[in-house]
Amino acid sequence: MRDLVPIAPNIFIYPRDETPNVIQPNIGVLRRNHETILIDAGNSPRHARQIISVVNAHGLPPITGIILTHHHWDHSFAATSFDVTQLIAHRKCAEKLNEFAERDWSVELLQAEIADNPKREISNNAMIDAIPNWHHLNLHRPQHACGMARGSSYPRQTSHF
């Protein structure tokens, strides 16, 4: 199992899986006094179990919140496996996740998408490998969504995610 990589006091990365054709991103782990916050959730219930296991092994407080950076499945679908009080996303991300939550996900749907658009093959096959049983997947919708004011910009900074 991969381990947390410290990048600053109380800030860690659970590193991505480097196996070819496995799509599993870095997950940010922020330790606060009595809670742990994740930056992104991961790609599947299995990925969530790995994250929970390593957080527990390090004696970190319970995971109570997730901040999603964007809607891609590999960053958001594991949110279904966490018992969190807050799931936060940008307004556009939340809109896309609400659309995803309405879909009738299945291996057959993903294979049909590949047949319609062969460019979906790598991602959809990675989804099938990550989540072989779609019948129990109930995608969570963000409770909090925010957007930036028109004309505002993010400060320049280095991102580790």
Numbering strands along the chain, what is their spatial order in the largest sheet?
1-2-3-4-5-6-7
Low-confidence stretches: 149-161
Instruction: Report the average pLDDT across residues.
Output: 88
The largest β sheet comes out as: 7 strands, mixed
Strand content: 15-25%
Shape field: globular
Structural class computed from helices and strand pairing: alpha/beta
Total beta strands: 7
Q: Using only CA atoms, what is the Rg?
A: 16 Å
Task: Give the termini separation.
Answer: 20 Å
Residue share in helix = 25-40%
The ordered string of helix (H) and strand (E) elements is: EEEEHEHEHHHE
Number of helices: 5
Question: Could you characterize the architecture of this molecule?
Answer:
The protein has 161 residues and is an alpha/beta fold. It has five helices and seven strands. It has a seven-stranded mixed beta sheet with strand order 1-2-3-4-5-6-7. α4 (107-116) packs antiparallel against α5 (121-130). It is globular. Residues 149-161 have low confidence and may be disordered.
